[in-house]
């Protein structure tokens, strides 16, 4: 039995069609072969169906993109937007109020310290003035009472005038003596003032200064020193230049001592 052998003959590939483009005029457009007759063109594949899962993936991608865009816009606004001072946190506002209260307390404390320091400086100045006055008194006492003090008879140690009004003045004079230790010196004190009025020299005696024609002198009586005082009145337009203090003791000669008006009123002037 003869076996049947099938021989395989090579199949030649299909021949491609060749298309010749006819020569056309410059203003003519060459014909385009139909799509189905294009070289190598085959049947177009059918579009794959879009599944529900693919749709969800697209929606999620869109949502992620929108969220990323919104977050970027919010970050840019927070970075470049002007700060809102009215929306400070509560703890920050509380801290600011506490610092303001502390500053006000410190200012008040500083003012109190300044006032106390000023009062203390004034008190110290008064104490220094009192100490200086006491030292002057001690020197005064030692000079008249001490064993080494200079012996002097009845004299006017000092005179001070203080204004009471435009024409009225109060005078204070200190009388001393240490010549007769233990002896009492007594008598009367009177004053007179020399000056000018309407361009003329004029002397006002004790009666004119006291505005009493029978004015008596101011009595004194002491062993070592005594301070006596009184009031006197100057007439309008009178310009005083010198004050004369006259001591009339009960025994012995009268004593007169003069002071310039400027020296007598120096301590009553501001800053003297």
TrEMBL record:
Bias-annotated ranges (Pro residues): 31-48
Lineage: Bacteria, Pseudomonadati, Pseudomonadota, Gammaproteobacteria, Lysobacterales
Entry keyword Glycoprotein: no
Superkingdom as given in the UniProt entry: Bacteria
UniProt keywords, alphabetically: Membrane, Transmembrane, Transmembrane helix
Residue ranges of the TM segments: 59-77
InterPro entries per record: DUF6776
Chain intervals for the UniProt region annotation (Disordered): 1-53
Pfam annotation, one family: DUF6776
Bias (Basic residues) ranges: 1-19
Protein name: DUF6776 family protein
The organism of origin for this protein: Luteimonas soli
């Amino acid at each position: 039995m003869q076996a049947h052998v099938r021989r395989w003959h090579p199949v030649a590939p299909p021949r491609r069609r060749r298309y010749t483009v006819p020569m056309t005029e410059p203003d003519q457009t060459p014909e385009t072969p139909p799509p189905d007759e294009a070289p190598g063109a085959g049947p177009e594949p059918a579009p794959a169906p879009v599944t529900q899962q693919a749709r969800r993936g697209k929606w999620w991608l869109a949502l992620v993109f929108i969220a990323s865009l919104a977050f970027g816009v919010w970050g840019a606004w927070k970075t470049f937007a002007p700060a809102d001072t009215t929306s400070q946190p509560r703890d920050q506002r509380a801290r600011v109020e506490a610092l303001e209260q502390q500053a006000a307390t410190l200012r008040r404390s500083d003012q109190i310290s300044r006032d106390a320091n000023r009062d203390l400086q004034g008190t110290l100045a008064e104490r220094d003035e009192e100490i200086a006055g006491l030292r002057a008194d001690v020197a005064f006492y030692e000079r008249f009472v001490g064993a080494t003090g200079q012996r002097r008879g009845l004299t006017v140690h000092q005179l001070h005038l203080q204004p009471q009004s435009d024409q009225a003045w109060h005078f204070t004079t200190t009388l001393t003596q240490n010549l007769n230790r233990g002896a009492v010196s007594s008598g009367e004190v009177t004053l007179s003032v020399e000056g000018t009025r309407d361009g003329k020299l004029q002397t006002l005696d004790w009666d004119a200064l006291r505005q009493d024609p029978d004015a008596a002198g101011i009595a004194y009586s002491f062993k070592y020193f005594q301070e006596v005082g009184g009031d006197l009145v100057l007439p309008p337009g009178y310009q005083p230049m010198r004050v004369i203090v006259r001591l009339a003791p009960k025994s012995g000669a009268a004593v007169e001592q003069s002071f310039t008006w400027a020296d007598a009123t120096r301590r009553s002037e501001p800053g003297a």
